[in-house]
């Protein structure tokens, strides 16, 4: 158990694909802190794998299919959460996707459909999650967090359209924080260094990105998903009660200032 006690909190985590997912590390640490969680999975293809990850958890963990490209799907997911939990305190958005053909080569060659797809899944999806999630946070407020990357502000060769998506996502964090602040709902993001996930493996030059990060960062290593999860635990807890509209820059072993 962690010194942060979330046993009176209810949350939902979006974005678990497998055991390497950042969303899974966050879900684990929130669960270890006592949070009552629902897990949203994308489709039937990943359902069994997600179910195996949580099968050792005590209690009943709702598994909810949710395709975030469909607003009706997101609304239905939160309807299920409302039926099961009654209210919500935490929503974690750890979702990013782009066509692998748009994660390499010149950015100028990005097609309209590839651009639309990356922005829709990686950035816009936070809006319906915040819209329907905040409706369940009316009584006590809550915390909504998402994951971003330094490519929102700097050029990382090969990251391409995902950098544009992350820039949009960070702007959304500030606007949503402004919208929802009077309801005591906080919206923040964590800017994490490169991590080995299902999504990162298709990024052109990812291995170079990770190697350079380890060589240049003051701590001379890459970060871990556990370190990102601990930052998420803080932002989901009442310890961060006065923080909203922030991009936690950076959980990256100091690479950003070298």
TrEMBL record:
Q: Its Gene Ontology molecular function terms? A: enoyl-[acyl-carrier-protein] reductase (NADH) activity
Instruction: Name one matching Pfam family.
Output: adh_short_C2
**Which domain of life does the protein's organism represent?**
Eukaryota
Taxonomic lineage from the root: Eukaryota, Metazoa, Porifera, Demospongiae, Heteroscleromorpha
SUPFAM superfamilies, alphabetically? NAD(P)-binding Rossmann-fold domains (SSF51735)
PANTHER family from the entry?
Answer: ENOYL-[ACYL-CARRIER-PROTEIN] REDUCTASE (PTHR43159), ENOYL-[ACYL-CARRIER-PROTEIN] REDUCTASE [NADH], CHLOROPLASTIC (PTHR43159:SF2)
This protein's pathway: Lipid metabolism
Q: Keywords in UniProt for this one? A: Fatty acid biosynthesis, Fatty acid metabolism, Lipid biosynthesis, Lipid metabolism, Oxidoreductase
GO BP annotations, alphabetical order: fatty acid biosynthetic process
Query: What is the protein name for this chain?
Result: Enoyl-[acyl-carrier-protein] reductase [NADH] FabI
Q: Which CDD domains match?
A: ENR_SDR
- InterPro entries (UniProt xref): Enoyl-ACP_Rdtase_NADH, NAD(P)-bd_dom_sf, SDR_fam
Sequence similarity:
Belongs to the short-chain dehydrogenases/reductases (SDR) family. FabI subfamily.
């Amino acid at each position: 158990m962690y010194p942060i006690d979330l046993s009176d909190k209810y949350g939902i985590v979006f974005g678990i694909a497998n055991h390497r997912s950042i969303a899974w590390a966050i879900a684990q640490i929130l669960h270890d802190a006592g949070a009552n969680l629902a897990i949203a999975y994308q489709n039937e293809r990943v359902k069994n794998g997600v179910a195996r990850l949580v099968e050792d958890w005590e209690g009943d963990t709702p598994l909810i299919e949710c395709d975030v490209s469909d607003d009706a799907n997101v609304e239905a997911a939160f309807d299920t959460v409302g039926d099961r939990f009654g209210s919500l305190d935490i929503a974690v958005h750890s979702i990013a996707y782009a066509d692998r053909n748009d994660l390499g080569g010149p950015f100028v060659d990005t097609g309209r459909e590839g651009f639309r797809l990356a922005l829709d899944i990686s950035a816009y999806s936070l809006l319906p999650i915040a819209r329907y999630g905040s409706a369940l946070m009316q009584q006590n407020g809550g915390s909504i967090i998402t994951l971003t990357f330094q490519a929102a502000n700097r050029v990382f060769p090969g990251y391409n359209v995902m950098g544009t998506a992350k820039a949009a996502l960070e702007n959304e964090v500030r606007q949503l924080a402004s919208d929802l602040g009077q309801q005591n709902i906080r919206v923040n993001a964590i800017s994490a260094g490169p991590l080995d996930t299902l999504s990162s493996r298709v990024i052109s030059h990812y291995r170079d990105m990770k190697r350079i990060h380890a060589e240049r960062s003051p701590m001379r290593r890459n970060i871990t998903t556990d370190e990102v999860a601990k930052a998420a635990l803080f932002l989901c807890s009442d310890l961060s009660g006065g923080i909203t509209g922030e991009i936690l820059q950076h959980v990256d072993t100091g690479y950003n200032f070298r």
